Amino acid sequence: MSDLLEARLSRWWCDRPTIRTVDEAQAFVQDVGFAVLFGGDRPVYPCLREISRDDDARMLPSGLGEDFEAMWDWKDTLPALSKAWLGRFLGSRQTLLSPELLADLYEYPGEPDDFTQCDHLTPSARALAETLLVNGPTNTRDARASLGLKGRDFDRVLAELGRSLLVTGYGTDNTGSGWPASVIELTARAFEVPSQGERGERDASAAARFLDTMVEATPRELQRTFRWDRDRAHLAWEAASAGQP
Question: What residue segments make up the domains of the chain, in order of their start?
């Protein structure tokens, strides 16, 4: 293991006791700023599953471990309380963002209909955002039916809106039979966005969080993670490295 990876894993709480409560999960997201739910074979970002994993946890009738079901509940509870944004963002993985980092990254005015200013949305993505604007928080089962989309097509639309931070997970709907359905909501209605300051100041603040969490990082890593263009990433990285804002 390289020294940098070891330092990152320590920064990402991997050398701490297993977290066991939603309050600890919130503290983790607040501390690191961003985390994926599942890390995969190679650790790239902070990962909620890794720090909540308990191989000795009791198995539940569902066939899942008690530790897994607890984590799965936290990822729905935190957004419903506006304590963390949830969507497909980092490498299109399910991602939690702290409210502060979300506000720095958010590109639009912060009004529920601000998605209308996003000119790169596909018609289906715009239609889903419009559905949420009219109906408020909506479970994914109903939203998918309203658009007439199959599962994978709907997931692509939801991921598209997630990459632009326009829609967030917002808890679950336990009505009906079967597993609870995930609920989604417009980010601008669920969170206080964007943060104060000019775009460059907000970029520098987001870059500073990224550099702190990653211990060391290049402008290219910043660019790839936040999907910024090269010039924007370099300016933010330089400002953050110089101790700004």
Answer: 3-105, 114-189, 201-241
Q: How far apart are CA 85 and CA 241, in angstroms?
A: 26
More confident residue, 242 or 134: 134
Q: How far is CA 232 from CA 204, 211, 221, 222, 236, in A?
A: 10, 15, 12, 10, 6
Q: What average pLDDT does range 36-59 have in this prediction?
A: 92
**Quick one: CATH architecture of 114-189?**
Orthogonal Bundle (1.10)
**What's residue 245's pLDDT?**
47
Exposure string for 35-56, b = 16+ CB within 10 A, e = fewer = bbbebeeebebbbbbbbbbeee
Mean pLDDT over 125-132 rounds to 98
The confidence score (pLDDT) of residue 179 equals 79
Within 10 Å of residue 76's Cβ, how many Cβ atoms? 18
List all residues 6 or more positions away from 165 whose beta carbon is below 8 Å from its beta carbon.
85, 87, 89, 97, 102, 105, 106, 107, 187
Q: In what order do the strands lie in the sheet with 138-139?
A: 138-139, 181-186, 167-173
How far apart are the C-alpha atoms of 236 and 223, rounded to whole Å? 10
Q: What is the mean pLDDT of residues 161-168?
A: 97
Whether a cis peptide bond, with omega within 30° of 0, leads into 61 is no
Given pLDDT bands bounded at 50, 70 and 90, which one contains residue 177? low
Ramachandran angles phi, psi of 241, nearest 5° = -65, -30
Average pLDDT over residues 135-142: 96
